[in-house]
Amino acid sequence: MKFSELWRLSSIIYKEISFQSIFSLRSGSTLPQRGRTSINQLARSAKTNTLISKIITSVFIGIFGFMMLFASTTTIDTAEPPRELALVGVVSAFLAVVLFLIIIMGLQVSTTLVSSKIVETLSVFPLTKRDLSNVVFLCLIRIFDIPLITAALTLLAAYAFLGGSPLGFIASLLGIIVTGIFALTLTIGLAKFFYSKVASGGGRSKWKTLLRIIFMFVWILPSFGTYIVVNFAVEIVRSFAVFTKIFSSTLQLLVLAYPFSFGFLISFAGSLQKISYSILSLSIVASVAYLLLALYALKWLTHTIRRIGVAGAIGVLRETVRDTIIKPRTPWIGIIRKDLRVASRTPSLASILLLPAIQTVVLAIAFSSFSEVGFSTAMGILTGMSVTMLLLSPTLFSIEGLGSAYTLSFPLKKKTLILAKTALITFIYVLSLIVLSVTAFLMRRNFTHILTFGGIQTFSILAASIIELLIIANKYWKKGFSLSNIYAKLPTYIMILLLGIVIVSIPMTIAFATYILIEQLTIPIFLISALSEFMLATFIVTREK
Amino acid sequence: MEQLAVTVEGLTVKYGAFVAVDNLSFKVKSGEIYGLLGPNGAGKTSTLKVLVGVLEPSTGKIGVFSTPIADEVGAKSQIGYVPEEVVLLDSLTPREFLEFVADIRHLEAATVNSKLERLTTAFEITQYFDTPIAALSMGNKQKVAIIAALLHEPKLLILDEPLIGLDARSSKILKELITFHAKKGGAAIFSTHIMEVAEKLCTRVGIINKGKIVGEGTVEDLRKLVKSAEGSLEDIFLKVTEQETGMREIIKALEEE
């Protein structure tokens, strides 16, 4: 089959993948029968949402790249540490962010690709196995096209702007190609790993449950990586430059590690006179080794894709069943248990649900840079934590979209659903708060502010979560919860999140004002305002059926 | 004394401008198996979805054992539902899914487990009990949905094409269970395209076409309706839904090709 025909065919399959990953899988594969026009609108919307997702990733890569690369010439002192070393850190950080972001973006769509339900549709047509594999591979390229091109253009443009040499230009191109291949390989690898070890394997033993939790953490490593690099980018660059200057032996070790080897090669290719040739040689050797590894990864990738194209990559693990005993609990515990089980096997949900864990780790790391955790610092930390918690309501509610064409027939009260999800959000928040307080205590920082204000803030978060969930429930109760991901109904989500932010901000603003005016009344006033919000939200929700 | 199990009065379901169900009314008594028949797109599934609370009607009054469906929890508690397209929570295993169903329906461990054991054995699903639903065949998914519908011993069974994908053994067991359920005083509404099954299993049938009931009663009643002393339910169905017209010519033309 001609390439043009394969490319055209891959476009149809790509649209189907987008549609399934955005809508069908989230709405229980049964879309409301609203006539052809509505379905066409949904299909168009799926296409637009996938494009928006790509554009958001691309814009982020572009902005981050330019900010970081220009920061090396402006904010970082070019004399101490040397500009070349700072540039190594910047380029390495940029490549790491590209790697992590491509993976995060890809996981959403590639899981549908790996589950290979799409390919079954194609396999009945008179296509050769090779054609089938090529179509799947072209789909993969289509998933990542805009972000990968943006990453390459950003690095090359920024490098050209900084006055790089032709040699450095080639090194940059090489670096971004290797990063792209690594990202695609890791995406497919993680998706395949997830489906084979988590989604396709059931199991009720404690060991299996523990494994699933571990897999969930493996799954969110890219999110964690992005969070760390983006939050501490400048610190990473500074620390890297200073560190390598003090310990020159470390420099020789780092030059062997990806992405630093490309960082060195790209940076020093533009200023050959300032580098020791041993370092340059090491970076060339390491970069070539990574290039070879990338070629091997590409071979694995095409092989895996071919297998997905031909027979599906995933085998089902069947458990030995000893009994059919179930342990019923109350409805609200049942909802929490179901939500946790579903989230632990759904990567996109797991990554958002574990966001507070990532944030807590990042904040715990950041404690080392705080001289004291006073009122202002504690309130700053709590603001960030509150916003993260507000993201959980729509995420948890989107779980109801799975199989809703059937589960809506259950005698479930809206109130029970809202309270169960609020209880889970509260549990996650309180757990984060405890971890943070213990970390502060271990690092000998004053943790009383975090514990006191964080404890009071629980009421605000409860109130905001209840209201968010109530709005979503009222809006979607009879529409089959076809909530999809956050991009699918962005304006609605933004409005709901804004309202949540307003709710958690009111007591904090009052507390700030009180702190300035009558400091000793801060805690009682904060408590009264947060508690009032909580009582009001509880009153509203208890009136629901 | 026979009790009214389901009352549907003036039910209308619209999708935008399209009217899927048009002012539909019917009643089902306890002890009855009511077959809802109709060609594709006639409005059967939409009607059943409204009954189980998955779909909001445009207009109409519906009651389940005297409980209006506006009382969502009250009405749904009395219903066991098997959807036409079985879409469960695919990432869960049957054990986890049925546990969730038992949680929501406030079922006691002691009673539910003995019933579960009997049902899983009957439908030969035990070996798949800890396999994710996503990895099950369509027939096995259907069995999980059937077990979920029977677990709480509902007074009303609403089954939308429940035999699709089922093997002969499970199909036979399900039909026996439905008959037994009706004999015990329960009611069942059963949608199918298999006329032989409807003829043998159902106490009464309602034939729906373009959103309206075009024929209702026992098979004998329907024979009188089409003024034919003989003929199977399939023949009656084709006449009532006006699908017979031109059918022979179409078949002949296809055969000549």
Secondary structure layout plus pairing:
The complex is a heterodimer of chains A (545) and B (257).
Chain A: H1 3-24, H2 36-71, H3 83-115, H4 117-123, H5 129-161, H6 166-199, H7 206-219, H8 221-231, H9 233-246, H10 248-254, H11 260-269, H12 277-310, H13 331-344, H14 347-353, H15 355-366, H16 375-398, H17 404-407, H18 414-442, H19 448-476, H20 490-517, H21 522-542
Helix pairs in contact in A: 1-2, 1-3, 1-5, 2-3, 2-5, 3-5, 3-6, 3-8, 3-9, 3-11, 5-6, 5-12, 6-7, 6-11, 6-12, 8-15, 9-10, 11-12, 13-18, 15-16, 15-18, 16-18, 16-19, 16-20, 18-19, 19-20, 19-21, 20-21
Chain B: E1 4-15, E2 18-29, E3 33-37, H1 44-52, E4 59-64, E5 67-68, H2 72-76, E6 79-82, H3 94-104, H4 109-122, H5 138-150, E7 156-160, H6 168-183, E8 187-191, H7 195-201, E9 204-209, E10 212-217, H8 219-225, H9 233-240, H10 247-256
Parallel strand pairs in B: 3-8, 3-9, 6-7, 7-8
Antiparallel strand pairs in B: 1-2, 1-4, 4-5, 9-10
Features:
heterodimer, A: about 550 residues, mainly alpha, 21 helices, about 80% helix, globular, B: about 260 residues, alpha/beta, Rossmann fold, six-stranded mixed β-sheet, four-stranded antiparallel β-sheet, 10 helices, 10 strands
> Widest sheet of chain B: strand order?
6-7-8-3-9-10
Give me the oligomer status.
Answer: heterodimer
The dominant shape of chain A is: globular
H and E string of chain A: HHHHHHHHHHHHHHHHHHHHH
* CATH level 4 superfamily of the domain at 4-78 and 154-256 in chain B: P-loop containing nucleotide triphosphate hydrolases
Named CATH architecture of the domain at 4-78 and 154-256 in chain B:
3-Layer(aba) Sandwich
Q: What is the mean predicted local confidence, pLDDT of chain B? A: 88
